[in-house]
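Exercise: predict the structure of this protein bound to zinc ion.
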Amino acid sequence: MSEVCPSHDPTPLLTAREAQTKTTLRVVKPQERPRRLLLCLDGVPFEVVREAKSRGMFDNFEEPARLLSPFPTLTNVALAEMLGATPPNGYESLYFDREARELRGGVRKYIGRRTPDKVPSSYMDELDYQEPLAFEFLIYVATEAVWRADMRRFRERFLSAPPARDFFGFLKATDGLLHIGGPARLAVALESLDKLLREIQKAAGSETEVVLFSDHGMNLVENRRLHLQSHLARNGYEVVSHMRRPRGRRRVSAPAFGLCGYAALYCGEETDRGELAESLGGLEGVDFSVYRDGETAVVKGAAGGARIHRAERGGETFYRYEQTGGDPLGLAPAVLSLGVEGRFDGAGFARDADWLARTWGHTYPDALANVYGSVFAPRVRHTADVLVSLRDGYYYGATAFSRMVRLLATHGNALRSSSHAFLMSTHRTFSTHVRSIEARPALRG
Ligand SMILES: [Zn+2]
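Solution:
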């Protein structure tokens, strides 16, 4: 038994006694706003929710906003940023530890007792409900049964929770339903969720605000495997699981786990990041690669190369998109409109807010801040040397998982379908788009 997308380290359910202790120890402070039920649906794209709403579902909710999920678009990366929590060790459960210079985590991490080192990020401490550990594995063989059981448990947990305080639930089964069943399967699941939320709201009282959101979106196309390791080997790289001893050959570590649309590459000290990114240009399925070079982020893709510069002036952030031959992020129209409106300074920088206003709905949403941040911001503790964003229709991951499934949807890349998560409330209307790092006040404030 296996899984296709363990990009979210599952934590076994607390025992009843642990749960009780956790509840008792929680500091309850009086709240001035209405009680809030916060519910995260793993992997549900903005477009799917908008479409469901247009068919009359979730009509007790205001219009959804696009919640901009950070690249790589994966659960722990996204939720840590959205909730202002500690960054997880790596992008997924299997990761490269830069200090130990070896791969760590993986499936072994799921086995045994729940210990602090198995909690990937502090956001998990805020969860009042998440699926039992076994569900993460079972969702890929018994999707409907697991979804129904997950909803039933969530309902019971919410209805028996202290009515004075907020409740934060996380339903992960939606991610598996999409990966394996595609959008048709998810649509059926959302109908049952819609019914459940109406029932819950009736029980809790209409003054209870329900906030529904997702961590990342998903492409809704069948995805095939990216032959990354054989390509690296053909290009003279040695793909390794540790770099503890120096070697003569150019070493790269490429953790392969969940079947997702990105790859994180770690280099030995003899391996040049630029050459590595360049060599990936010829591999079918690669959209672009990004790596740090001094204070800039270098982007290399089939459509050419560019350098992203960032500057802070008077408490404001500015970005410059320096095209070094081509337009890998497809920003020419945004550059043109910023130029026409006179938004560039003498050095070619424009305000972060101006870039965002023109690119939140772009092929690569919020392209400059997001792609730059992927190699500079502490989205994970062990940031990759080269991050690779794949085209929709391709994934990289563990061979053992890929042999078992037909992947009808996936996420992980910097494209719109995966980057546009959603956020909506029964009580509040949000703006058209909300950046993940600015989401906490909307979610918890
Ligand atoms: Zn997933």
